[in-house]
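>> received
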Amino acid sequence: MAAAKNSYRTYFLGDACLCWSLGNSIKRLTSLQVLFVYRRLKADKELSVLGVHDMVPSYTALAVHADTLSDWQEVRRVVDPYFETLPVAETELLEQSVRYILPVSYDGEDLPRVAKLHGLTTEEVIKRHTAVEYMVAMIGFRPHFPYLLGLDQSLATPRLDTPRLKVPAGAVAIGGEQTGVYPEISPGGWNILGMTDPELLKPIHPGDTIVFQRILP
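>> returned
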């Protein structure tokens, strides 16, 4: 399927970061399009010559960080064409990625409550949570924290009314329609299902995939 003219907007975050946005809704297709552009720009050597030193993808946008004195018109000359015409079919956006398996001890303190909320057994929650190959849409909140697309919507669970002051490193959790893993001890309001080794998160990048594998007691 041919690429189509795409709608996007740009906005500055301070004077050294320009964002290209494809909307406000978390959708798999949008994330795939952002990652499609991200990977190609990472390979574009002209950007570093123009002072670009980092690019950060999110669910719906790509943030491009450059030196304060960079010529943003020149940066846009390189970046805009990637966003103006994008594939609209997943088959054209999917690219080779690294697949990571994270072993999880499903003994999290919120697991029984999540199961009760959805009228499921804890075994069924675990089965549904481990049945998916998740896509890493972005890394954020903390270094190496993967935001994952693909959660079974029957497991979507509101964040805690009162966030915890200390979530343990390696906590596998659900927050709303998202699931992820806390890479270090930090405050957080997601529902903890279990634990994995946080060191396994370090090589993971946006566009990779993750499978949670249950560790039997």
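>> The radius of gyration is 19 Å.
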